[in-house]
Specification:
This protein has helices at 12-21, 63-67, 114-129, 143-146, 174-186, 190-202, and strands at residues 24-31, 34-41, 43-46, 52-59, 73-85, 97-111, 152-167. It is α+β, with helices and mostly antiparallel strands. It has a single domain (5-171), classed as Electron Transport, Fmn-binding Protein, Chain A (Pnp Oxidase, Chain A, Roll). A 7-stranded antiparallel β-sheet has the order 2-1-5-6-7-4-3. Strand 1 (24-31) and strand 2 (34-41) form a beta hairpin. It is elongated and about 65 Å long. The mean pLDDT is 96. It holds the Pfam family FMN_bind_2. InterPro entries: Split_barrel_FMN-bd, TR_PAI2-type.
């Protein structure tokens, strides 16, 4: 990912928090000689060696699943909030732009055993069921329902590198920076308001 130095985010704590909060990713690799992308949730975790990994699964019917045996190099793309920035919000003539948050994670896929896949499903369900009034637990599902777990390919991505970008008008002076925040808040659009919050946090 092309990241100008001004927008590069190397704060490990921020990046981990971003991945926890924006876990629905696009998983990309070479499948049958062409680029292939699958939209899936991925969970940041650690392996037995204490190294960071991403955990996920896809359907066995997805051609990408078979491709992992020949090409284990993958890219996981995580997108955060984003918003159009009008140049009419500046006190001088300039071009409009777009503010956004994004993280790219590169790594190699290691396929799970069936037992490992059940553990990864537990982690996924426990994370997203934590806010449910009546949370579902893998341990409570019937044998019949759990047969569906045979239809997935579960894996972990051994992370080789992470690239993080937060493009938040860092190139603007305080006056224009604050005006952008005000204009974003006026839109009453969720994405714009989230970018305004990120801008406030980034230059607090």
């Amino acid at each position: 990912m092309y990241i100008p130095n001004l927008y590069k985010n190397e704060n490990q704590t921020e990046i981990e928090q971003f991945l926890h909060e924006n876990g629905f990713a696009i998983l990309v690799n070479q499948t049958n000689g062409k680029l292939w992308a699958t939209h899936i949730p991925l969970i940041l975790g650690t392996n037995s060696n204490g190294e960071q990994i991403l955990i996920g699964h896809i359907s066995k019917l997805n051609p990408q699943a078979e491709s992992f045996n020949q090409n284990d190099e993958v890219l996981a793309i995580f997108s955060g909030s984003h918003s159009y920035i009008s140049s009419s919000w500046y006190d001088h003539e300039n071009v409009p732009t777009w503010n956004y948050l994004a993280v790219h994670v590169y790594g190699k896929v290691r396929l799970h055993t069936y037992e490992e896949s059940i553990e990864s499903l537990k982690k996924l369900i426990n994370k997203y069921e934590s806010k449910s009034e009546k949370p579902i637990r893998i341990e409570d599902l019937s044998e019949k329902t759990m047969r569906e777990a045979r239809g997935i390919v579960s894996f972990e991505i051994e992370i080789s590198s992470i690239e993080a970008q937060k493009k938040l008008s860092q190139n603007r002076d305080d006056k224009n920076y604050q005006n952008i925040i005000s204009e974003l808040e006026k839109t009453n659009e969720n994405q714009a308001i989230e970018i305004a919050k990120a801008m406030k946090k980034n230059r607090s």
